[in-house]
Design a protein that fits this description.
Length: about 280
């Protein structure tokens, strides 16, 4: 128990020191946000995980239970919560499709390529407005348009954005004709992709619902037994019982990972993955 509370105090001190260091030496703009989005780490989440492990350890006096509770507090919210990542992806695909169609319409009015990008970026959908703002800043700063477009595609890291950037790259490097027609086709294809992903997301929702039900039942069962039939769980307080608890916890985690992977759908592969790469479109 002293070890658990010591770990909680140590984690709190690390969080406090990290916060003070970030105030003294602020990170580069956007770097901390991207790191938190990638790892899912935040001071509040880490504190909640440590508190959950300490409370469960104090209530049960089982070290393995404290560890399993901390792991569950870290992983289960993303499994049981809404699939925000899929919603953001669908909204971004729709935004890219709308921007491609806007580019096509503006180019049909005989506007230049760079001027078209600057004009459409100002009224682009909110989901990609930040990335487009960096693209326009690069263009105004005098960076070559192909380099700025590749950086824009890498920042979005989306196959649909790669299609739009690839058409613009061909136009900027090879003076491709009928670029408006190509962008219009990209917009239509992006909307078809969004529709297909929406149908897939509906199927994933059923899998996630089944996963939530199974996890809820499996978590409620030991809690109910501990409250109403505490003697039934007494053997887990022994050394061998802790080993069994660790094995059961690992098996439960494996089942959850398998169910989550079953409901996961991989995105289409990107087409602009190497510097200087472009795909010729007929």
């Amino acid at each position: 128990m002293f070890a658990l509370f010591g770990a909680g105090i140590g984690g709190a001190l690390l969080i406090l020191i990290g916060g003070l260091r970030s105030q003294v030496r602020p990170d580069r703009p956007g770097r901390a946000e991207r790191r938190r989005a990638r790892t899912g780490a935040s001071a509040v989440r880490i504190a909640a995980v440590l508190a959950t492990g300490a409370v469960v350890g104090a209530a049960t006096q089982w070290p393995i239970a404290a560890v399993l509770a901390a792991v569950a507090a870290w992983t289960l919210p993303s499994v049981l919560g809404p699939d925000r990542g899929q919603k953001r992806t669908l909204a971004r695909v729709e935004a890219i499709a709308a921007w491609a169609e806007d580019l096509s319409g503006t180019l049909r009015a005989a506007a230049g390529l760079e001027q078209t990008i600057l004009e459409t970026a100002a009224v682009a959908p909110a989901e990609i407005r930040t990335e487009l703002a960096r693209l326009t800043e690069a263009i105004r700063a005098g960076i070559r348009l192909p380099d700025a477009l590749r950086a824009f595609a890498d920042e979005l890291s989306d196959p649909t954005a790669d299609m739009v950037a690839n058409v613009l790259l061909q136009a900027s490097q090879h003076q491709a004709r009928d670029i408006a027609v190509g962008l219009s086709g990209v917009g239509r294809r992006a909307r078809r992709q969004a529709t297909s992903r929406m149908r897939i997301a509906t199927g994933r929702a059923r899998v996630r619902t089944a996963t939530r039900i199974i996890i809820g039942v499996m978590l409620a069962t030991p809690v109910g037994l501990a409250i109403f039939v505490g003697d039934f769980l007494a053997p887990y307080g022994t050394g061998f019982g802790q080993v069994l608890l660790a094995v059961f916890g690992a098996m439960f985690a494996g089942v959850i990972v398998w169910m989550v992977r079953t409901g996961r759908v991989r995105d289409l592969p990107r087409i602009l993955t190497n510097p200087g790469e472009e795909v010729l479109v007929p």
